Amino acid sequence: MRHQSLISRRVAAATVSLVLAAGAAACAGPQDGDGPSTSGGDGEPRKGGTLTVLNGEPQTDFDPARLYTSGGGNVPSLVFRTLTTRNREDGAAGTKVVPDLATDTGRPNKDATEWTFTLKEGLKYEDGTPITSADIKYGIERSFAAELSGGAPFLRDWLVGGGSYEGPYKNPKGLASIVTPDARTIVFKLRKPEGDFPFVATQTQFAPVPKAKDTGTKYEERPVSSGPYKVVKNDGDGERLVLERNPHWSGKTDQERKAYPDKIDVISGLDSAVINQRLSTGSGADASAVTTDTNLGPAELARVGGDKELAARVGTGRFGYTNYLAFNPKVKPFDDIAVRRAISYAINRTSVINAAGGSALAEPATTFLPEKEAFGFTPYDHFPAGKTGDPVKAREVLKAAGHEKLTITLTHSTEQNRQTSPEVATAVQEALGKAGITVKLQGLEGNAFNEKRWSAKDAPGFFLSRWGADWPSGAPFLAPIFDGRQIVRDGSNYNHAQLNDPAINNEIDEINKLTDLSAAAKRWGALDRRIGELALDVPLFHPVYKRLYGKNVKNVVISDWTGVLDISQVSVK
After folding, report:
1. What is the reported pLDDT for 71?
2. What is the DSSP string of 128-148?
3. Chain segment 200-222, per-residue pLDDT in tens
């Protein structure tokens, strides 16, 4: 998570598949509080038909080396299989990692510094040639090439020799830390223990790429499929992507993807209002359409709420994402914990949530970790402010610390994304004003905002921020933000407080050694609670995602891993 490519992906995810204007999350169902739904209409799901995907953002960089996170969302996972994958089930059950190309989720050595996987028998590419462990090794190695940048950075940090490796185009000998003793076995040697390695093995870098078919930067135009669908058209760098069945894919080796439709037509570059209108009306092909990146807004939700038929076609989810106020203690007066505590007491989460779109689209947060068991969620509220803030307590804390008058600056984005937007910033400003804190607002254009907030040298003292997990675990949530060894001085630094506490760093290392994910989750939760006492951030809310789907769409599955409707499960006939 240290690279600029990551934050650009973060921002894309935040405006495409992860955030309010673009959603992601768990529990499927027409309304808040409803249980998971696995049917988008009457009748059982059947094979056949065409699924249309209406999106705002193009499916760019359709190369497994360049995509980010688990399958890069939904569409890539139809073409690229990986060693492991997410369990394709509703809600919390979907946070589990399961085998994909591999026979299991990996076998670690005693200290989790070495992981061994065995491939299933009978795996084939779209042309009928067998998939081998050497293809997976090559696929990973090419993701290190500078010309194919953009994917997740973890393997560069984790693999022995990964930090200096430049890819197979410059170093054809490959990485010695990836060993393939035979065609079905692959072994990874790590610099340090990583109990979460099975989660990382879900990322598209682990998709096999046949060396003989590698066309470098042009590979994204017609990549070789290992999944149930193959690319037959890729126009405008992902603006129009058409997928048809891979005749050599077999459901016998793939228990996760249902692959009901015969064809998937991905149309991008559409305005969000147009997408929701087309899904609402459901004419022609739009009756069998979904979106993987466009949420309903407050006004649209109000209209949908008055229409029972439309309300029954809204998928609801809660992805592992937290919006928060970040402090940089290197900037005065935020070096004083009393100031940070006072702000924590003063915050009015009700007004913040209203600014973020209302309670249908955001839920209050007092913990940094999302409220899900897989992350290790442990309830706490070190600075209870109630629903509307406690300005009296905030004033008391400030007075005791000698701050009779306080003027501070809050930096935010000028983009209308309902998360780091002017509306949310104004809500914070008003709440702190009641506690006697004068807040000046500094709005920056999106790119400038991201560059500033992720700069270790030039980060503001107080700013709106957000963070989402690359997989459902406490590791990708807490380590990038609070591990002192991940502070980056000359690039994208996500440790906004520049915290470098040896005890916390050590606890992160100890948890990373655990391959018992349940035990690890409990310790991540305890660490979150411990860090929370330092008042280095103010959790504000967790986004809720609401998306329409077509009236002919069936078998709606939305897990807590991705939070988006899983198109590998959808039936349209």
Report:
1. 42
2. SPBP-HHHHHHHHHHTTSGGG
3. 999 999 999 999 999 999 999 99
Phi-psi region of 480 (alpha: psi -120 to 50; beta: other; left: phi over 0): alpha
Contact 295, 548 (CB under 8 A): no
* Mean pLDDT confidence for 341-352: 98
CA distances from 382 to 78, 88, 136, 336, 372 (A): 44, 36, 46, 17, 19
What's the pLDDT tens digit per position in 60-94?
999 999 998 654 458 999 999 999 999 999 999 99
What domains can be seen in the chain, in order of their start residue?
A: 4-265 (3.40.190.10), 321-543 (3.10.105.10)
Strands 321-327 and 462-468: antiparallel
Contacts of 345 (CB under 8 A, 6+ apart): 383, 384, 385, 389, 390, 391, 393, 394, 397, 435
pLDDT per position as a tens digit, 499-512:
999 999 999 999 99
Question: Position of tokens 């803030």?
Answer: 389
CA distance 300 to 23: 14
pLDDT in tens, 372-408: 999 999 999 999 999 999 999 999 999 999 998 899 9
CB 318 within 8 A of CB 27: yes
Q: Which two tokens stand for residue 520?
A: 């690890």
Strand order in the sheet with 114-118: 107-108, 114-118, 185-189, 178-182
Q: Compute the distance between CA of residue 24 and CA of residue 469 in angstroms, rounded to an integer.
A: 12
Q: How many whole angstroms separate alpha carbon 19 and alpha carbon 201?
A: 24
Handedness of CA 344, 345, 351, 357 (dihedral sign): positive
